[in-house]
Amino acid sequence: MNDDTSKAGGDLRAVTLHNGVTMPTLAFGCAFGDWVGRTDFQGFLPEQAWRAVSLALDSGYRAFDGARVYGTERIVGTLLGQRFASGALTREDLFITTKLAHPAAPPHINISHKRTWDPDKVDDIAQRVRDDMVDTLDDLGLGYVDLLLMHWPGGFGQHTSPDPDFPRQARATIWRTFCELADKGAARAIGVSNFTVHHLRQLLEDIPEPERRPTVNQVEIHPYCRNPELEDFCRTQGIVVTAYAPFASGALGMLQDPTLTAIAERHGKTVGQIVLRWHVQSGRTALPKTSKAERMAENQAIDDFALSDDEMQAIDALGTGEARRTCPDPSFVA
Ligand SMILES: NC(=O)c1ccc[n+]([C@@H]2O[C@H](COP(=O)([O-])OP(=O)(O)OC[C@H]3O[C@@H](n4cnc5c(N)ncnc54)[C@H](OP(=O)(O)O)[C@@H]3O)[C@@H](O)[C@H]2O)c1
């Protein structure tokens, strides 16, 4: 067994964002349901969050990744409120992420139209963002979030505006509104999600103040879906990359991959632990989600071993070629 943890270096439990805010490396994913279609397709099932988030708090998770569209913020807020009331937790113990501005969802996902909107279908984009933020904070029962992300760079279909620059302008408007919310204290840090290099470059041109650049880009990354070019770009800009669907949502047969299984056996760890260790050793943060208490503990126990350079490269090699995704490809967003 290889127990040389020195290779990874640094603090693997937290990262410091460019605005000085400290963010835990692992946050518990709060999207529940089956949007990949492994079973009879059900879309989001927020009711599963009650038990899972409660167990996750018991298991020691203090960072939670949510979004307006998941429909779980009232549940998370209620469960946190119980712990605030008992004195078991204070607000400062937690790192809460939300995501706003999710466009009308692909037809196979059952998200309420009240939780999604296409920028070209609302009269006042900035006001819609402000209103959604009020609803999110009300549901969470919090005065601020630790991290606010723009959920998607734009609509999945063709936008109806005749102006080809509209999607870019809409992103800039949403981003300026996020800056305003951060300035008012509603979010300690702001970032983006599902942004490609193209979307990031445009945003950095449109809002050139370095201190206003995104702190985080949350994107789909797992051993079957890699994007080294995007990660390199984010690194040069000081933007932390967070891997969503770090286990490929349990789909694509990834957790049964023979390369991962062999590495797991060599270390006496589970495939889940190997995958999470690969994420953090690669310098990204990750959002593991599970409904099972034993896996919640397992997914946090990744500090007592390290992957060798050969093992890191072998896992990297699984993601060469076309990415196998569980969510839509954001490069199709204009
Ligand atoms: N920004 C975005 O657009 C976006 C999109 C998708 C997801 N996300 C975020 O990313 C989070 C995680 O993504 P995800 O929910 O799609 O899935 P995920 O975390 O990649 O995978 C969850 C699946 O893996 C299984 N699992 C968890 N730990 C395991 C372990 N140690 N060994 C074996 N299997 C394990 C779970 O099964 P059990 O429950 O049976 O353990 C579940 O089926 C979401 O909850 C959300 O917060 C963001």
Strand content: 5-15%
CATH topology: TIM Barrel
Q: Strand count, sense and closure of the main sheet?
A: 8 strands, parallel
How many domains make up the coordinates?
Answer: 1
Distinct compounds present: NADP nicotinamide-adenine-dinucleotide phosphate
How do the strands of the widest beta sheet line up side by side?
A: 3-6-7-8-9-10-11-12
- The CATH C-level name is Alpha Beta
User: Runs with pLDDT <50, length 5+?
Assistant: 1-9
At the fourth CATH level, what is the homologous superfamily? NADP-dependent oxidoreductase domain
Structural class determined from secondary elements: alpha/beta
In CATH, the architecture is Alpha-Beta Barrel
Can you write the helix and strand succession as a string?
EEEEEHEHEHEHEHEHEHHEHH
Q: Number of DSSP strands?
A: 12
Helix content: 25-40%
Provide the fold topology.
Elements: E1 14-16, E2 22-24, E3 28-29, E4 33-34, E5 43-44, H1 49-58, E6 63-65, H2 73-86, E7 95-100, H3 125-140, E8 145-150, H4 166-183, E9 187-193, H5 197-206, E10 216-220, H6 228-237, E11 240-244, H7 258-267, H8 271-281, E12 285-286, H9 293-300, H10 309-317
Parallel strand pairs: 3-6, 6-7, 7-8, 8-9, 9-10, 10-11, 11-12
Antiparallel strand pairs: 1-2, 4-5
Helix pairs in contact: 2-3, 3-4, 4-5, 7-8
The structure holds NADP nicotinamide-adenine-dinucleotide phosphate (NAP).
Residues 29-31, 65, 99, 151, 193-194, 218, 244-250, 255, 270, 272, 287-292, 295, 298-299, 327 line the site of NADP nicotinamide-adenine-dinucleotide phosphate (NAP).
InterPro entries: AKR, Aldo/ket_reductase_CS, NAD(P)_OxRdtase_dom_sf, NADP_OxRdtase_dom
Family: Belongs to the aldo/keto reductase family.
Domain NADP-dependent oxidoreductase: 42-318
